[in-house]
Amino acid sequence: MAVVKRFVRSLPIAPGGVELEFNGAVLCRVTPPNQLARDEIDALLGGVKKQLNRSHERNRDVPARVIEREMRDAVKKVRGRRAP
Question: If you average pLDDT over residues 18-46, what whole number do you get?
Answer without folding.
Answer: 88
